[in-house]
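RESIDUES AND SHAPES:
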Amino acid sequence: MSTPGNDADDDEVPAWARRTAGESRWAATAAVVGILVVQYFLPEEFSAGPSWIVPTIGLALLVVLVIANPVRLDREEVRLRRFSLLLMALLGFGMVWSVAHLVRSLINGSAANDAAGLLSSGGAVWLSNVLVFALWYWDLDRGGPAARAQARKPYPDFLWVQMQNPDLTDPDWEPEFPDYLYLSFTNATAFSPTDVMPMTRWAKLLMMVQSAISLVTVSLVVARAVNVLK
């Protein structure tokens, strides 16, 4: 591992394994806003309480984080980390609530007999699943974006293709939110890892949970929609 300020060593170490300037926060911020918008417009029976509660609390937490770290995610503070984890927990709670109530309504037959409305609600819940897990992967891998910028944890939780093929990769490459979004999307559609391998137990467990949620949501929504259309 290189030492700060040693340019010769830094040239030989890939960006993901050394200190960097930190990634821009705006891709992840856009994902958080997208989840809050989806939560606000979900049908009432799939929302955790009034439709404004989760978006309002989430927006307040997001504003605090943006003010504290407005451009690049390179500032490590215990309070900021707690706010970030609280936001991730809130988004996860809203998503799990929506999935659970969607599945319950499909099983007990109380879901609407409007196939288009059912598919749109199911699609919105599935999209929340993809975005929430992308944020979880991004915020937990090697301690989060600020910890990754400081290269505080040398061992990755996810093994990316670029890590396995350094000779074919830009030495300045390091995983950023779009990479975690890709991981989440492929895991939610293939129901298994594709080219990004989980290395730690928590990463394996989280990917397993996401695949299960996605499989149950898609299969039940499609089955109900087909039953309505017939």
Summary: Residues 7-229 form one domain.
